[in-house]
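In the design runs reported in the main text, the only information available to the sequence generator was the tokenized backbone. The following block is the verbatim input for one such run; it is reproduced so that readers can re-run the procedure and compare outputs position by position.
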């Protein structure tokens, strides 16, 4: 019998509180399907498709209910409760699914809906994990550059950027130079496709086209200069790495914003600084 998977089993015994199922008639290994889930008219020898998991007493049990998550897959599940050693998630069955802290990719709170996979732990119990989503996402999204898409954030703070599952299915990423500090795992966002890579993965952007985005970027540059007491200790020839660190934008966007502010006589650019006028 396969824990965490849907499978067809044979009815081998009917009891007052349910039916016992096995892979074949005469098998010693049996699993109970509780009476309230037994279809009417079923009898010994009949086949029934069920899902196997463990109940609150750690006993193997069958259900005819459709779980939202099975082994080998992933799904967006709602966090019902966060405890001292992990969180409990709603996956459509009587017993909640446990998400251990060691399997989290970031903090979660009650009500969050996050992408998780299913695995069997060392104690042979089914648990959720926020890891491994990247490898399970499809790489053949039907979208092209400039399309607007909806996706769920499943990993933040990485070396490459913020990872998003478009339609909870397709692999996508917001590059690191964009400011995604306001995003949390589980957030559902609307973004534009900025690039479709040769392997089918999508690059996304939360930014508008340059002529629309420039106003917001200019405001961001002014805010940062003000944080430096009105004098930025470098000019517009600074390295892209420093721009990403300080402004969370590309060098091209930074230069457009600085150019806008300079033309509007809001700043002056010197050999070693940018100063608010």
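Verbatim output:
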């Amino acid at each position: 019998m396969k824990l965490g998977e849907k499978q067809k089993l044979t009815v081998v015994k009917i009891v007052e509180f349910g039916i016992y199922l096995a892979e074949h008639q005469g098998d010693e290994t049996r699993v109970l399907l509780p009476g309230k889930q037994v279809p009417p008219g079923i009898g010994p020898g009949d086949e029934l498709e069920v899902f196997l998991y463990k109940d609150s007493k750690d006993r193997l049990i069958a259900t005819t209910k459709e779980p939202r998550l099975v082994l080998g897959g992933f799904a967006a599940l709602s966090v019902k409760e966060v405890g001292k050693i992990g969180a409990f998630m709603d996956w459509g069955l009587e017993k909640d699914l446990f998400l251990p802290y060691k399997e989290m990719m970031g903090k979660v709170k009650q009500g969050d809906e996050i992408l998780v996979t299913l695995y069997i732990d060392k104690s042979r119990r089914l648990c959720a994990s926020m890891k491994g989503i990247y490898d399970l996402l499809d790489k053949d999204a039907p979208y092209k550059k400039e399309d607007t898409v909806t996706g769920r954030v499943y990993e933040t703070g990485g070396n490459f950027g913020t990872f998003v599952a478009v339609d909870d299915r397709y692999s996508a990423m917001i590059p690191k130079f964009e400011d995604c500090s306001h995003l949390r795992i589980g957030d559902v966002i609307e973004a534009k496709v900025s690039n479709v890579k040769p392997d089918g993965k999508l690059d996304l952007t939360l930014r508008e086209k340059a002529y629309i985005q420039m106003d917001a970027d200019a405001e961001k540059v002014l805010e940062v200069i003000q944080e430096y007491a009105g004098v930025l200790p470098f000019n517009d020839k600074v390295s892209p790495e420093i721009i990403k660190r300080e402004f969370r934008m590309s060098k091209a966007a930074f230069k457009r914003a600085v150019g806008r502010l300079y033309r509007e006589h809001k700043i002056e650019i010197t050999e070693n600084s940018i100063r608010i006028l």
